[in-house]
Write a structure and sequence with these properties.
By secondary structure, the chain is of the alpha+beta class. The protein has a two-stranded antiparallel sheet.
Length: about 90
């Protein structure tokens, strides 16, 4: 994703049938285009705040590092397999 030197802000009006057009400045900052999917999340504990993110085109590697390094993950899987007795 492109890092900008300043925050990017824009507004969009919600239209009939809950449709809106993503402002060009936001689309450029997110590096998205036709057929990309955006994920929206709201938290009822924080009214009026919307988080939006781009769904990865592929999920391969998207969790890298979440559960430790590759070697740590492989060590865990090996230990689990060994525990099965096979």
């Amino acid at each position: 994703m492109t890092l900008t030197s300043r925050p990017v802000a824009a507004e969009a009006r919600l239209r009939h049938k809950n449709q809106l057009t993503l402002p060009e400045a936001i689309a450029r900052a997110l590096e998205v285009g036709p057929d990309d999917v955006l994920l929206f999340e709201v938290d009822p504990a924080i009214p009026g705040l919307l988080h939006a993110r781009v769904r990865p085109r592929t999920f391969a590697g998207s969790l890298t590092g979440v559960f430790g390094s590759t070697e740590e993950t492989l060590d865990f899987v090996r230990a689990e397999r060994d525990a099965w007795g096979g």
